[in-house]
Amino acid sequence: MKTIIVPTDFSPAADNAARYALQLAKFINADVKLFNAAKVPANSLMALQTAWPVEDYQTIKTDVDHELSIFAKRLMLEQSHQNNVETHYKPKVTYCIQIGSVTDVTTNLAANHDVSLVVMGLKSDNAISRFLAGSISNDVIDKANFPLLLIPPAAKFKKLNTIAFATNLDDQEIDVIHSIVSLARQFNAELLLVHIMDDGGKQKDYRHKVSNFLTKVTNLVNYPHIYYRDVKSKDVDLGLTWLLDHRELEMLAMVHLKHDSFERLFNQSHTQHMARNADLPVLVFPAVNKSVVF
């Protein structure tokens, strides 16, 4: 059975991400696994020299297991009170606690389960910009070999009508498009391929590149609701923010390349804009990607 895994620290942002994941799981016929990553509560230098007392771990594990159990039961109870005529699947909610960093535990769980997606909650009002500035989030994104869905604190689950994918018109993105289509198909949603172009967009070579890319997409991806548009801007960040201001979207998908525009898209210069779009989930694919079926 497909699984969505959700890291939680029992914060409101993590709770919100878990609820989003549970609603999404109904549409893609997946179960949800909550986990808490427990770190050694000791100075890193001392941790190398001193064993963590077993009784301390057992106490923490017992307390966290209890909290996870309560939250899982609460999610299942909320689900039982909801009626959705569009989907009849009722996901199971399981949980675990593991020792290690969020990055390591997430990667290990993804490797050992049939994981379709990792859903992670974002904190603070300027959620994405601050999230990306944090060492934990950057580490997860950089090391992920799985799709990662980032849920801002104001995001509530909405049926997906339009998913936008920021494309570089690269043939290697075809696998990513296959993956997004497998998600869009569950909702009969549109997939909008968006490329940010500068003034060179009128040049013959550029238009030929666009035409070739779209021909490959049409021939290799069997889905009738794929559309394309150029957004004219010399700056990728501003081009995407323009799109978010002028088009109703339920999700934005991107490929994460180290040192690319992903971090810059959500930097402090766009704080006000992101505050206005604080409810937009961002689906991040690793640069080296194989097609994932949601």
Describe the protein's architecture and organization.
By secondary structure, the chain is an alpha/beta fold. The chain has two domains: 3-121, HUPs (Rossmann fold, 3-Layer(aba) Sandwich), CATH 3.40.50.620; 162-286, HUPs (Rossmann fold). 44% of the residues lie in helices and 21% in strands. The chain contains eleven helices and ten strands. The protein has helices spanning 12-28, 44-47, 54-80, 102-112, 127-133, 135-143, 174-187, 204-220, 236-246, 261-265, 271-276; strands spanning 3-7, 31-38, 93-99, 115-121, 148-151, 162-166, 190-197, 226-232, 251-256, 282-286. The chain has a ten-stranded mixed beta sheet with strand order 3-2-1-4-5-10-9-6-7-8, with helices on both faces. Strand 1, helix 1 and strand 2 form a beta-alpha-beta unit. Helix 4 (102-112) packs parallel to helix 6. The longest helix has 27 residues, at 54-80. The protein is elongated. Residues 43-50, 125-135 and 265-276 have low confidence and may be disordered. Belongs to the universal stress protein A family. InterPro entries: Rossmann-like_a/b/a_fold (IPR014729), Universal_stress_UspA (IPR006015), UspA (IPR006016). It comes from Mucilaginibacter gracilis. This is Nucleotide-binding universal stress UspA family protein. Residues 1-152 form the UspA domain.
